[in-house]
Amino acid sequence: MTDRTVHLVQLYPRDMNIYGDWGNTLTLKRRLEKYGYAVRLSDHDPGDPFPADADLLVGGGGQDSGQFRVQEDLQRIAPELRAMAADGVPMLAICGLYQLFGHEFRTGAGETLPGIGILDVTTVGGPTRLIGNIVLESPEFGTVVGYENHSGITRLGPGQAPLGTVRKGAGNNGEDGTEGARVHHVVASYLHGSMLPKNPAVADHLIRAAVERRFGTFDAEPLDDTLAERAREVAAARPR
């Protein structure tokens, strides 16, 4: 490894990695390497020592059973995650981990999984799944496209900023027009598909935050995202 090494950590890949969420980790790794950085890639599963030197964390979605399997370990490392988020460590939390990054998730069966409170959101299991292509407008990232597949109904607290406003799709709850949540350099969303290959602006925000925090500056030539732009156009044009 060189002195330009970024430590990228995927949270709970055994239990929280469905609908192509591994593609987010792969996208960050490939883009970092194209920008000239070496990548140290680690997994964190329940019971593992937590990598407190992580520069960037990524977590995906899972079934309710997967959330139950990781929630005890997530509570164990919650103080470190909250401190890292407040200190500017970038994180991407998708679907199931988005829910657990909030205050709590109440399942459709009436069970409650405590969250870790990085985000001011609460989620309850709804009676139907919200499924389909989704397009939103983000003040930071412009048009964001993806695919949602969740039954969780997420409500934002009064001071919680969303990731964006839904243009097509359901988003957090199908009612208030919000999708995802944002705080510090934490990006949380229901977008699968994977999210980052089709949204390089989001990927580069996470990369820039990680590199600037570790090395002080991020000076790199823009990448050629022609294929990503074509994928975005196709995804945005697909029917709901």
Automatic annotation (TrEMBL):
Q: Which organism is it from?
A: Kocuria sediminis
Record note on quaternary structure: Forms a heterodimer with MurT.
Identify the stretch(es) annotated as Disordered: 158-179
Name of the protein in question: Lipid II isoglutaminyl synthase (glutamine-hydrolyzing) subunit GatD
Keyword annotations from UniProtKB, A to Z:
Cell shape, Cell wall biogenesis/degradation, Glutamine amidotransferase, Hydrolase, Ligase, Peptidoglycan synthesis, Transferase
Answer yes or no on keyword Transferase: yes
Q: Name one GO biological process term.
A: cobalamin biosynthetic process
User: In which pathway does this enzyme or protein participate?
Assistant: Cell wall biogenesis; peptidoglycan biosynthesis
Q: Which domain of life is it from?
A: Bacteria
Q: What does this protein do?
A: The lipid II isoglutaminyl synthase complex catalyzes the formation of alpha-D-isoglutamine in the cell wall lipid II stem peptide. The GatD subunit catalyzes the hydrolysis of glutamine to glutamate and ammonia. The resulting ammonia molecule is channeled to the active site of MurT.
